[in-house]
Amino acid sequence: MEMMTIGQIVNTHGVKGEIKVFPLTDDSSRFKKLKSVYLDGIETKIESVKIGTKVVLLKLSGIDTPEEAEKYKFKYLEIDRRNAVKLSKDSYFVVDIVGCSVFDTNGLKIGELTKVLNLPSNDVYQVMGDKEILIPALKSVVKEINTIDKKIIIRPVGEWYED
Fold it and tell me: Which helix (H) or strand (E) holds 94?
């Protein structure tokens, strides 16, 4: 079973053992479709879901007090990758592209993708090499993404970015 991280527990909520989860997805409503998550490698049933503006409130089976919920603070929630949403063509899970090596079409290594920034107009890839560079996730700039080989090919930086 291949696991995928979908959120991090950031705090407790209320007196019934609810947890506040920072979602690691671009669509928090996906939590409503889940019946269970894995917490510390153990499948745990979801009893209720409330979607907030920045966090998701979850009530998990077996966590019934704030003290029990506190034990899981800063831990991650996972799902079986088979239960992940189906992505459209040319869409990728952030977890699959972070860590990819980024090269330009001339074969020059730019660095490693360290973070994906979700901005209103488009996503931006933060790449660390000799210096940090922000790459717009646009088809006109990003030419190829190969998640199996962990490699991303972009147009040469000087063609779309001035230093």
Answer: helix 94-97
Q: How far is CA 130 from CA 108, 127, 133, in A?
A: 12, 10, 9
Split into its structural domains, the chain has a count of 2
Task: State pTM to two decimals.
Answer: 0.71
Structure tokens at 115: 């973070």
User: What is residue 152's predicted lDDT score, i.e. its pLDDT?
Assistant: 97
Question: Of 83, 104, 137, which marks where a domain is finished?
Answer: 83
Range of the domain at 136: 94-160
Statement to judge: residues 12 and 56 lie in one domain = yes
Give me the DSSP letters along 36-77.
Answer: EEEETTEEEEEEEEEE-SS-EEEEETT--SHHHHHTTTT-EE
